[in-house]
Amino acid sequence: MPAEILSTETPGLMQIAVERSAALLRAGGVVAVPTETVYGLAANASDPAAVSRIYELKGRPGHNPVIVHVASQGMARDCVADWPPLADRLARAFWPGPLTLVLPRAATIPEIVTAGGGTVGIRWPQHPFMQALIRTCGFPLAAPSANLANGISPTNAAHVDKALGQVLPLIVDGGDCNVGIESTVVDATGAHPRILRPGMIHEPAILMAAGTGPPQPGNETADMGPLRSPGQLDRHYAPRARLAVVTWHNDAELGARMEALGAKPESTFILAHHRLPQSLPPERVFLIPDDPEAFGRALYAQLHRCDDAGAGWILVEAPPATPEWAAIADRLRRAGAPAR
Q: Which residues fall within 8 angstroms of residue 63, CB to CB, at 6 or more apart?
């Protein structure tokens, strides 16, 4: 049966959605929920069978860990075996919000959550629905993005319904995500913070809050063994269409780029933030604001829109090479990586 979609537009509807979702989660079920980053596929993080259902629904590879979501710093501390001063400084600066801290996992966190690794990613989301849901449940939620593995992350309930609506019992509609890309993930197990996945909390802000300076070569644990964070796979966040990040100064140069790629003009879509081409029909040219936060909010929705319109190629105007755009560049690089 198609998923039931519950609105959160009023306090009364919000309460109904929280209670219905909590009941399903207590029973070991999986629910699609809104966060400020992207929509998540949530289950009780302490229930291995429920977390296994997330992997099954997404087709997620077992070596890719999932993030655990909490509603207080106390709940976060219960999920980890060690809470160093670095974690405390970063949590005080950026929680609740789009920051995930990777720390040694507590015995209460099943290995399936961490893909067999000894660390776990913990986040205290800012979204009011998620905060209310976790408090009502009384347990942390494992919640990767609510989409099929490696596909475009969902930033509204319709995206979730399109991908998973036939296999989920419930989708909570919390509106469009106001961040729009996944959280910044920081490994806080060492003396210095290490960014494992860039997000809209940028490296300079992380380093300033940490007060430790950047990692120095050779003084941090090498990346070995299981993945410590989602978002590490070569291909991720990918549309069905082929995607390339390109630069152009005029329509002739854009045309040459398309020809070199083998991108047919009649099935090529453009995402631009600075230089709007005039040679393609306007319905296949999408303008995204020349601002990293606005670009992040719009990116996945525009990729979904291109796929829905039958794009063969999506050409994205290259973002600036500055720290504020690092998360955008990361998502575009992985979205354009060749399928294996």
A: 115, 116, 226, 227
Compute φ and ψ for 7, nearest 5 degrees: -80, 160
- Work out whether the CA dihedral 98, 102, 104, 107 comes out positive or negative: positive
Cα distance from N-terminal residue to C-terminal residue, the chain: 33
Cis ω for the linkage preceding 226 (within 30 of 0)? no
Of 241, 252, 218, 224, the C-alpha closest to 305 is 241
Of 180, 50, 68, 74, residue with least CA distance to 117: 68
Contact 334, 236 (CB under 8 A): yes
* pLDDT tens track for 157-197: 999 999 999 999 999 999 999 999 999 999 999 999 999 99
DSSP one-letter code for 282:
G
CA–CA separation, 255 and 264 (whole Å): 10
338 band by pLDDT with thresholds 50, 70 and 90 = confident
CB 273 within 8 A of CB 319: yes
The pTM assigned to this predicted structure is 0.93
Cα–Cα distance measured from residue 16 to residue 227, given in angstroms and rounded to the nearest whole number: 37
The letter for the amino acid at 89 is R
